[in-house]
Specification:
Length: 168
């Protein structure tokens, strides 16, 4: 049973600000890394002026670093891809900022449109490709910072055959 004395001990139960944790300066959990990526995606002024498109290779720019993590901005012109790879000991968050990217894994293929996010753990093998006719931009958060990107070969992750195309 509540009484006036209970309220005096607990304080105003409708005011919970004293129970909320102060925001951390740097993310430390998966949810916080996803939140960082989402807030950067929403604030185009932090990245849009930096984007460049390079027809010869994927363009990338390290946007931010923090204790143990890195944030990278990448652009993809039509036809550019990452090749099948993992991220070594790093976990990550991939966020599509503009355009559409295709992610291929052994489990299948999915189109990632602007706003889509993918979270992955160390050892996650995938290929990311711009199969669209328009350029794309993505944001990548790695924890710990990316130190290796081992390449893989696996026929089950290749693009499906095009009807009428020559095959070896």
């Amino acid at each position: 049973m509540n009484s006036d004395s209970d309220l005096q001990i607990a304080g105003d139960i409708l005011e919970v600000t004293h129970l909320l944790q102060t925001p951390r300066e740097h993310p430390a959990t998966v949810a916080e890394f996803v939140g960082l990526a989402r807030s950067l995606a929403e604030d185009r002024s932090q990245w849009e002026h930096l984007v460049r498109y390079d027809a010869t290779s994927r363009w990338y720019h390290r946007l931010r670093t923090g204790p143990g993590y890195e944030v990278w901005l990448l652009s993809w012109v039509p036809g550019q891809g990452s090749g099948l790879h993992d991220h070594g000991r790093s976990s990550g968050v991939l966020t599509v900022l503009d355009g559409t990217l295709t992610e291929r894994t052994e489990r299948g293929t999915r189109a990632l449109r602007a706003g889509a996010q993918r979270v992955f753990a160390p050892g996650y093998v995938h290929e990311v490709v711009n199969d669209a006719l328009e350029p794309a931009v993505s944001l990548h958060v790695y924890y710990p910072g990316l130190t290796e990107m081992p390449m893989h070969t696996a026929p089950h992750c290749e693009a499906p055959a095009v009807p009428g195309a020559l095959t070896a």
